[in-house]
Design goal:
This is HTH tetR-type domain-containing protein. By secondary structure, this protein is mainly alpha-helical. The chain is about 65% helix and about 0% strand.
Amino acid sequence: MSPRTPPPPSASARSGRGARGGYGVGDARRRRIIEVAVKHFADRGYHATSLARIAEEVGITQPGVLHHFRTKEQLMLAALEHRDELASAREFARRPRSAAEALRTLVRLAEFNASQPGLVRMFTTLAGEAADPGHPAHAYFTGRYAMVLGLIEDSLREGSQSGELRGDVDHGAIAREVAAVMDGLQIQWCLRPDSVDMAGQFRQYAERLIRSITPDGRGLDTESPGPAPAVAPAPGTGPAGVSGTGPGPVPASESDAGTGPGAVAREPAGPGRGAVEERASGRRAGILLAALEVFAERGFRGAPLAAVAERAGLSQQGLLHYFPNKERLLVEMLDLRERVDSLRMLAEGGASPRLEHIVQLAEYNVTRPGVLQAFTVLAAESVTEGHPARDYFVERYARMRELAAAALRAELGETLPGGLTPAEGAALLLAVQDGVQLQWLLDPQAVGLPALVEAFAKLLREGA
């Protein structure tokens, strides 16, 4: 989702511009470097991308790449800007004249994105990685979201002022939701394109949204007002965020939960348990916590085992005594998360998940931003080529869509407000959860995650 992106705070260094000029002045080699870089960032993420490999594919030396882009960070920002320029030139050449036109523009952008899987994968991966404040693209995405959300909010506010939209619309909340839906659907589509019709579902969402906030119920075609049926507002008119891929609740107090997610897996010592087993269990928990922190900062591919070992206070050889390789460490960390996930536990216990559990999940998430950051980074990174967690996230999204659909069906019936089916609503729930969580990680002071989730859950229940 990218209207013309403003210069991020690091714009003075972006793309290697300055004395050497921009890539838009006919420098075919710079363009080729950027095109190859897009592919590598899409396939490997930022940390695991190698300038040497990019140079080899372009057919030049690494110093040749550095002649055009002084650092990998500059090249990454140039690749992001390239993506924005393609979208801007296609759909955002002029300012939308109405709220409906702004939404139609975003629908066309979603359709364009569906034709550009490499660009979408790169954006999804780098945006997830940028949840880490230390990531070189963090400032870029923080500035980008501020700009994009401002553009959408301004269009909605002008629509209310002109009478196109109702006067009681929460413009800021809807702007965040629209952005979240686009970004969240992209993750599901990148993981398995045949499971989610990204462009089609966003179009349907935008149509329901505009009909629910116009005084006469007209749709995206503002030239010919449609009928004004007495339908309840769609799930798209209030704050966003519901059950998704975030971690589930653990004991509320720090004394119960230990020092991190690894401590959750620790079991009480039984009568026959020896001191060696006790120490090993504690050490494994500490390693899992260290891995969580390092993966949150660098992703899986960019996190060397040596960095995890150092964070855990071990040598690399000592870590390998407990986990034979990095892939095994990742698997056990993901498995731990499954064991503390609230919806999974409810399903295994035979109870049906409900919207109230979704609100509780959001309240928990904000208490453990490190856990949320780690799994946001890993979910985004899993869309890259050959990632060891890809199958895990593909299966998890499919399962979570089923669980969310069951929760919606049990609580709201076969037809949701605005005409959604439970299956369609489930995909939307996952999308807004992931999208709003990313916004919260990028700028926690600007986003009230639990409040947005609670308001959206209330909207689904009451249809008003």
